Amino acid sequence: MPNRVRYAPSPTGFLHIGNARTALFNYLFAKKTGGQMIVRIEDTDIARNVETGIESQLDMLKWLGVTWDESIDQPGDYGPYRQLERLDLYQKYADELIKQGVAYKCYCTKEELEAEKAEQIARGEDKYHYSRKCLHAPVQDKPYSIRFFVPENTSYTFNDIVKGEVTFKSEDIGDWVMVKQNGIPTYNFACAIDDHLMAISHVLRGEDHITNTPRQMMVFEALGWDIPTYGHMTLIVNAEGKKLSKRDGDIIQFIEQYKNLGYVPEALFNFIALLGFSPGEQELLTPAELIEAFDPDKLSNHPATFDRQKLLYINHQTLKNLDLETFKTYTMPFLKDAGITEGKSEAWIESLLAVFQERTTHGAEIVPLAHEFLDAPFSWDDEMKTLMQEEGVKALLETFKDGLDEATFTPDTLKAWMKESGVRTGSKGKMLFMPLRIATTASMHGPELPKLMHLLGFETTIKRLEKSLEWLVNS
């Protein structure tokens, strides 16, 4: 049977970086090993469920490029894929464990449990374990939860793909609740049942789940089932080495936010795949290349730092290498919303895109880049003024201005006329291009000058050349 992995989101929110990484690594593992990926919806936390949580998460996974073999939208032989539709299965195995004597009914109320915990704390005990006072309690006509009877003096050891050999002792755990009084299973019980019934061979998840593993192993062992292979990926931390938190204001947390800012999904896929995995020296990789390079044995056992500058770099490089039409899909919505393209020709828009494609790190950034250029004040600094006073500059500007024609004001004709103006005035190299750049853009550096002039338009370019010549005459 092929390897089977699962990504098991809860509909309590939207897809964020941490969960996206879990899904992505499961996807890479399945694809690399010729296995299958299942998306199971763990929706038992009814009070915290968000109405559109799962729909949004699945949509964002598809946008990111993560696909699966089975789920609510693609049923297979191991459904249902929502835990709330599997309650009869959990009850069946809970009853079986009670019959075996490894689980029991607990009639304690919430108030009784809180009082018991307070007493243990008052005695100076550093950890709370249920007292087992209901272990041999007679059947009662009152609500009850179901607890797992944790054996004493027992160790639970597993070889973690990332962490190596990990051991937990039963005395550190205590009898835990399998099924709550409302009949809803707890995470650890439902997870173990589902992983077996869905034939999950490998469980790849965040290291915050590692303490859940012994409880799930108890269920597997009690029911005589094979235990999956576990791999607990390290935490994602911020630049200060602290666990990534929603309070990190300079880090965008949710995948949909990246989509709405004009990030390229393949670039985000690339970046997330590097959070805890190193494919080698090459870091700019396509999804297909990442699948080929993926090796679970190379998952890092050190915290993965969220490097925002690396993300911007990867997305920038990806945008730079797109053809113009594809680049347009990531930037045009922002330009339209900002009103920058209103009344502009297609040629003008393409010049704008071509000019700023080299500088754009994400789609939304093209708006401030365009405003920075189009709205910048026209003024020279001392260095510019010194250069403009060089011999031959006035003749160059006059020749170039006099030869401009609004009907043929295109990047190609401008480029050709710049060269011809240089020939006619004996200007070349720096003393050809730099004066023309300063005289039209008030800058000594920037994107290709003919395209910048085209963006400024015929009238603005002429006015700036006239203003520059006037300064030269009066200086």
Topology:
Layout: E1 4-7, H1 17-33, E2 36-39, H2 53-64, H3 87-100, E3 103-106, H4 110-122, E4 145-148, E5 155-160, E6 164-169, E7 177-179, H5 187-197, E8 202-206, H6 213-222, E9 229-233, E10 236-237, H7 255-260, H8 265-273, H9 287-293, E11 304-305, H10 308-320, H11 324-337, H12 346-356, H13 366-374, H14 382-388, H15 393-402, H16 411-425, H17 430-441, H18 449-456, H19 458-474
Parallel strand pairs: 1-2, 8-9, 10-11
Antiparallel strand pairs: 3-4, 4-7, 5-6
Q: How does this structure look, described?
A:
This protein has 475 residues and is mainly α. Among the domains are: 86-233, Rossmann fold (3-Layer(aba) Sandwich); 334-474, Arc Repressor Mutant, subunit A (Orthogonal Bundle). It is built from 19 helices and 11 strands. The chain has helices at 17-33, 53-64, 87-100, 110-122, 187-197, 213-222, 255-260, 265-273, 287-293, 308-320, 324-337, 346-356, 366-374, 382-388, 393-402, 411-425, 430-441, 449-456, 458-474, and strands at residues 4-7, 36-39, 103-106, 145-148, 155-160, 164-169, 177-179, 202-206, 229-233, 236-237, 304-305. Strand 5 (155-160) and strand 6 (164-169) form a beta hairpin. Helix 8 runs antiparallel to helix 10 (308-320) and helix 16 (411-425) packs across helix 18 (449-456). The mean pLDDT is 93.
Large-scale geometry: elongated
User: Distance N terminus to C terminus?
Assistant: 84 Å
CATH architecture label name of the domain at 86-233: 3-Layer(aba) Sandwich
User: What Rg do the Cα atoms give?
Assistant: 32 Å
Instruction: Look at the structure and give the mean pLDDT.
Output: 93
